[in-house]
Design a protein that fits this description.
This protein is 35% helix and 27% strand.
């Protein structure tokens, strides 16, 4: 599903990723751990096509990301890749329902109301359907972000510190949902600094100063 070969990313004089090579199989749950500045988020941004200015190779679904145009990158990302961010990236003036449906609507797909209700029930948000995003707790907002990823129906979910701003109970709830999605066949790449969270994954990759150790 994802193949990196001698991947290198440099910001001015700072080497963020240093000749990284790894494969991630379809349906695998991989956690990338490391201290702040170790290159975790940079790697995730390259996999997701948000950063295509790198040396070496990053192939996602048989496409070399650096060779794609901006339009091609956006198309691949909208069809196959969903993001779950640490800071949720919800639109505050939209309701829970509208935020969850947003990714699907951007792709021009009509959301099935029955499926929407099932997803909200799974996430414990059925009673918050018409609430605005800025009226929710941090844990609820993160679950909305996961709901958006579910309804987007992508093969790959990239999660960047998805529990970083949550308390222990909410963090466990979010990870249980991600684990369940993985069991359904989703490929999940999770970035975290927390080994307890990383242990939900099938495989853990540790980065230090841009290198896999």
């Amino acid at each position: 599903m994802i193949k990196m070969q001698n991947l290198k990313k440099v910001y001015k004089d700072c080497v963020a990723l240093d000749t990284v090579s790894m494969h991630i199989r379809k349906g695998e749950f991989v956690a990338i751990i490391g201290a702040s500045g170790s290159g975790k988020t940079t790697m995730l941004n390259i996999i997701g096509g948000l950063d295509t200015d790198y040396m070496g190779s990053c192939v996602v679904r048989n496409k070399e990301m650096s060779s794609l145009s901006d339009v091609e990158c956006c198309t691949l990302r909208s069809r196959y890749i969903s993001y779950v961010y640490q800071f949720f990236n919800l639109i505050s003036f939209l309701t829970v329902k509208e935020n969850v449906c947003l990714a699907s609507q951007i792709k021009g797909k009509k959301v099935d109301e029955k499926e929407l209700d099932q997803v909200l029930k799974l996430l414990g948000l059925e009673q918050k359907k018409d609430s605005f995003a800025n009226e929710l707790s941090g844990g609820q907002q993160q679950r909305v972000a996961i709901g958006r990823a579910i309804l987007a129906h992508t093969d790959i979910i990239l999660a960047d510190e998805p529990t970083g701003n949550l308390d222990g109970e909410n963090a466990e709830n979010v990870m249980d949902i991600l684990k369940a999605l993985n069991k359904e066949g989703k490929t999940i790449v999770l970035v975290t600094h927390d080994l307890k969270i990383a242990n939900y994954a099938d495989r853990i990759i540790r980065l230090e100063q841009g290198k896999i150790v």
